[in-house]
């Protein structure tokens, strides 16, 4: 209800700023503000970052305003204001929307991972699947699963839940009928203790803010005898170090750990470490 009221108010204020007859040095700023409010109201409810809704909304309002004025010369100035607002509005909508760990997984990655998750002909993660040993009767949780890039290979299980904090990533995951996407942070999983037979965290732990809390939560929701599988780049390998440096250069708040240091956090577990070039898999069975 509050969201609907906010969107309606923004749309009305935006329309008023566009259609009210104004003159003077502040006219351009008022028009830009009006178009921006309309673009924000159009894109804020979206589940992914997009300029499409903003562009359509602004184009319609701009066309109506120019038609009402009946002044072709004014269309040029209005077009620049409308274009500027089309660019600003979705950005403001993004930064006023609940998001995930960092903006890379809302602005760029959903399209990449979404495309990969829909490519059924892509090579499966054979090492992960072998180590996880997911059976048809198992309940599986993919923590930080994003768009379902990995979870799609586990759909033979009885239940596959996918947790991710980014609504933009989850919008892609919802396109797969067999997955159960849940918006949550890994540090606060909304599941009871012992709810899953397998918990996997693939290439995601280094992005999490409180990694210790995330691992503790993953262990909590795993049943006794269940298996936690972590897949991470190995920072002790040159390629793993290059990935860590690259993510830092991109502004990602990533923190990498060697597989041995990750395994040491579960001293009571039966642990196995598997390495393949620059990647490492840490497999822990809960006693």
Query: Mind telling me the C-alpha Rg?
Result: 24 Å
The total tally of domains equals: 2
Order of strands across the main sheet: 3-2-1-4-5-7-6
Task: Give the termini separation.
Answer: 47 Å
Low-confidence stretches: none
Beta-strand percent range: 15-25%
Q: Tell me, what is the CATH class of the largest domain?
A: Alpha Beta
- Spell out the CATH superfamily of the largest domain: Vaccinia Virus protein VP39
- Largest sheet properties: 7 strands, mixed
Give me the secondary-structure topology.
Blueprint (H helix, E strand, L loop, with lengths): L1 H18 L7 H17 L8 H18 L2 H24 L8 H4 L1 H10 L7 H7 L6 E5 L15 E6 L2 H7 L6 E4 L12 E7 L8 H10 L1 E12 L4 H12 L9 H5 L6 E7 L2 E7 L2
Parallel strand pairs: 1-2, 1-4, 2-3, 4-5
Antiparallel strand pairs: 5-7, 6-7
Helix pairs in contact: 1-2, 2-3, 2-4, 3-4, 6-8
Search tags:
single chain, 287 residues, alpha/beta, Rossmann fold, 11 helices, elongated
Q: What would you say about this model in short?
A:
With about 290 residues, the protein is α/β, with parallel strands linked by helices. The chain has eleven helices and seven strands.
């Amino acid at each position: 209800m509050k969201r609907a009221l906010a969107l309606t108010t923004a749309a009305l204020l935006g329309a008023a700023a566009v259609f009210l007859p104004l003159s003077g040095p502040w006219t351009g700023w008022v028009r830009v503000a009006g178009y921006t409010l309309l673009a924000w109201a159009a894109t804020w409810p979206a589940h992914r970052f997009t300029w499409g809704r903003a562009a359509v909304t602004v184009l319609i309002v701009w066309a109506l305003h120019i038609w009402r004025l009946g002044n072709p010369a004014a269309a040029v100035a209005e077009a620049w204001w409308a274009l500027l607002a089309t660019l600003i509005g979705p950005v403001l909508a993004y930064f006023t929307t609940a998001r995930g760990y960092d903006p890379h997984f809302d602005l760029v990655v959903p399209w990449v991972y979404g495309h990969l998750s829909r490519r059924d002909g892509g090579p499966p993660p054979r090492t992960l699947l072998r180590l996880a040993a997911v059976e048809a009767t198992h309940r599986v949780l993919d923590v930080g699963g994003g768009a379902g890039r990995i979870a799609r290979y586990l759909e033979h299980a009885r239940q596959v839940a996918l947790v991710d904090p980014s609504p933009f990533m989850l919008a892609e995951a919802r396109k797969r009928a067999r997955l159960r996407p849940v918006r949550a942070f890994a540090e606060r999983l909304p599941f009871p203790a012992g709810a899953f037979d397998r918990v996997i965290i693939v290439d995601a732990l280094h992005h999490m803010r409180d990694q210790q809390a995330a691992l503790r939560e993953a262990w909590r929701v795993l049943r006794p005898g269940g298996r936690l599988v972590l897949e991470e780049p190995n920072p002790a390998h040159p390629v793993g170090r290059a990935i860590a440096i690259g993510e830092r250069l991109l502004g990602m708040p990533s923190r990498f750990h060697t597989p041995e240091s990750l395994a040491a956090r579960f001293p009571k577990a039966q642990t196995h470490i598997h390495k393949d070039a620059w990647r490492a898999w840490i497999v822990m069975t809960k006693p």
